[in-house]
Amino acid sequence: MTADPSKPHLYDLNILSEVPVATTCRSGNATSDLLCARSYIDMIDEQIAFLYARRLGYAAVAGMAKYKQGVSLNDPTRNQAIAEGMAARVRKYGGGDGEAGRVMGGEGCQIFASLEFEKEQIRETCDSGFDEKIQRVCE
Q1: Which of 55, 89, 108, 124 could link 103 by a cystine bridge, Cβ 3.0 to 4.6 Å?
Q2: Quick one: which of 117, 121, 115 has its CA closest to 136?
Q3: Start and end of every Chorismate mutase domain (predicted)?
């Protein structure tokens, strides 16, 4: 995983367990706190992007397997399980019970973006006419 080489790293981006909790940025000085928080947010965003790209790769493998089996890419039961599982993980790590879990869990369209990526990969690798309808229920 690579980040902007011109910026110093506050922790090792390759080790998720090294990400400190947000209290690291609570100094009592609002200007310093904002700069600190933004620095960590930028680094965490780098990790999220890296992990999501990896996740999309696995989604493409799953999509190709479903395609070869002749089954729909979109499985509402599986989607619900993914959404609920992600919401539970967000809660487990202190993200709360509200919107954050729902967004990461699927209502924020993560699942549907992955399904669209699966379709693109099938089109690019073996069936240029493949066009399963993926209904996007999130906005």
Answers
A1: 108
A2: 115
A3: 38-121
Global pTM reads 0.76
Which residue is listed with tokens 């202190």? 94
Instruction: Provide CB contacts within 8 A for 52, sequence distance 6+.
Output: 110
* Token pair for 118: 């699966």
The b/e string for 4-42 (b: 16+ C-beta within 10 A; e otherwise) is eeeeeeeeebeeeeebeeeeebeeeeeeeeeebeeebee
Q: What is the rounded distance in angstroms from the CA atom of residue 123 to the CA atom of residue 117?
A: 10
Q: Considering the chain, what is the average pLDDT of its residues?
A: 83
Task: Parse the chain into domains and list their residue ranges.
Answer: 16-125
**What CATH class has 16-125?**
mainly alpha
Whether residue 11 has pLDDT greater than 90: no
